[in-house]
Specification:
Length: 461
């Protein structure tokens, strides 16, 4: 069934609302003796993302200003807080950039970077910060795969703030009952299916939860389709084209067929409005054998102390494994294992009057000391390996993500049409769960994708 068209993208709306540009970049030395720099983020003290706002005001600003004074410069830094929903924040900063205004350093969702770059709202960091960008010490501490969060068309537009990784969680106690090795690391999709078939013999247990359908929303795409697609050696967008109903897409959909037609997953939970939350609860209760999820699940859902569905025996009962390629060596970039990640990033305003100094501020915010201070004692995966090595040692799962998952991860294409493509992928999985063949679902996906982006932008099925 043909879906209704989504509303115009943020940048299209902006183009209609704003037809003239105001204040230009201005001239003068990029590093004058007395300047004011600004930072903006969707964070506000006492409200949304309050910890981030407090870190900027109480740690970043006073320390950066002090460092500048030591260098003989009079630099003042101001924070422009926001506490709105993400789409409203996106609209605001895009309007600012369209009109050549806005903060010098801007926090964005990584998924917006390509859209903003194509609109001319942001430029590569090296074009703005000069040689200091390539010479920055931090690049050596951010794995190339993680740098990809801020890369578009091969150019670095942003510094990644933080990221995450997808893994396979499994219940060790259920594995033992099913006669499986509790120290599990599948080396291909068939080994996942084999484990699920063994778990199926346990009464009251759903062997495998791979998100499917539109009710799960983006969780279907990020926890299910895209990691599997990477495991089949492909990405949803590459070299200027969207991946249509290719062999890789059909392989992904056939994996869904084996899971749901084979009785290894619960098709009903995929259709429920709160299905993902229900899957979390059922895993915590020992009713799901294997669950594909991000590290958020470990630290926020089943955490024994603060989790939404706390597991008191989490550290003993829950195992985690890398997501395997379809076959060894058959994954993206020839990898044996794969993952997907998301996260936010920070960009420079190309219309800053002091771009070189703005880069100093941005790189200061991403120094090891600053990143560790932003955590405020919380164990969370950051973009920097040196910080992760220092702060994640007390949590072996998060250290596993940092050391094993992030170096092989991939990201969604940061383009405006992606959400609609994602929905089309979700529909394809729903079709298979409902009983259609992978070929039928792939053909329908190819047709919908062609409607969205045009035949010339779709790789052949």
């Amino acid at each position: 069934m043909r879906l209704p068209r989504r509303p115009a993208t943020t940048l299209t709306v902006i183009a209609l609302l704003l037809t003239t540009a105001s204040c230009g970049q201005g001239g003068g030395d990029d590093r004058p003796s007395s300047v004011t720099l600004t930072i903006t983020q969707n964070a506000i003290s006492g409200g949304k993302n309050a910890k981030g706002a407090d870190w900027i005001k109480n740690w970043v600003i006073p320390r950066f200003e002090a460092a500048q004074r030591s260098a003989g410069r009079d630099v003042r830094v101001l924070f422009q807080p926001n506490g709105v929903d993400d789409e409203a924040y996106k609209t605001k900063i895009a309007l600012d950039l369209k009109s050549r205004r806005g903060a010098d350093v801007i926090d964005v969702d990584g998924i917006w970077i390509g859209e903003f770059a194509q609109a001319g709202y942001i430029r590569p960091l090296g074009e703005l910060g000069g040689p200091a960008v390539d010479a920055w010490e931090g690049w050596s501490q951010i794995p190339p795969a993680v740098q990809g969060l801020g890369v578009f068309d091969g150019k670095k537009y942003a510094l990644p703030v933080g990221t995450d990784g997808r893994v396979l969680y499994y219940n060790k106690e259920l594995f033992r009952k099913a006669g499986l090795d509790a120290d599990w690391q599948p080396d291909g999709w068939q080994e996942i299916i084999d484990a699920a078939r063994a778990l199926k013999r346990l009464p009251g247990v759903t062997p495998l939860q791979i998100n499917a359908g539109t009710a799960m929303g983006e969780a279907t795409t990020m926890q299910g389709v895209l990691p599997l697609l990477a495991g089949a050696g492909s990405e949803v967008y590459t070299e200027g084209k969207w991946t249509g109903g290719t062999r890789a897409v059909r392989d992904v959909l056939d994996f869904y067929r084996q899971v749901y037609a084979g009785g290894l997953g619960d098709p009903k939970i995929q259709q429920e409005a709160q299905g993902r939350d229900k899957s979390f609860l059922e895993f915590a209760e020992g009713k799901i054998g294997v669950l594909a999820e991000g590290d958020y699940f470990w630290r926020s859902v089943i955490d024994p102390a603060v989790g939404v569905n706390p597991m008191k025996n989490r550290d003993e009962a829950v195992g985690y494994a890398l997501i395997p390629a379809m076959r060894p060596g058959g994954g993206l970039r020839g990898q044996d294992h794969v993952s997907m990640s998301g996260g936010s990033a920070r960009v420079l305003n190309p219309f800053s009057k002091n771009p070189a100094l703005a880069w100093e501020l941005l790189s200061f915010m991403h120094s090891a000391a600053a990143v560790e201070a932003e955590l405020a004692g919380e164990a969370r995966v950051t973009a920097r390996s040196d910080v992760n090595d220092k702060v994640l040692g007390r949590d072996p799962m998060l250290l596993f993500v940092s050391e094993k998952v992030l170096p092989l991860t991939a990201y969604r294409p940061p383009l405006a049409v992606y959400p609609e493509v994602s929905t089309a992928l979700q529909e394809a999985t729903a079709s298979v769960v409902s009983g259609d063949s992978p070929d039928q679902a792939a053909t329908a996906y190819q047709a919908r994708l062609t409607e969205l982006v045009g035949a010339a932008a779709v790789s052949p099925g």
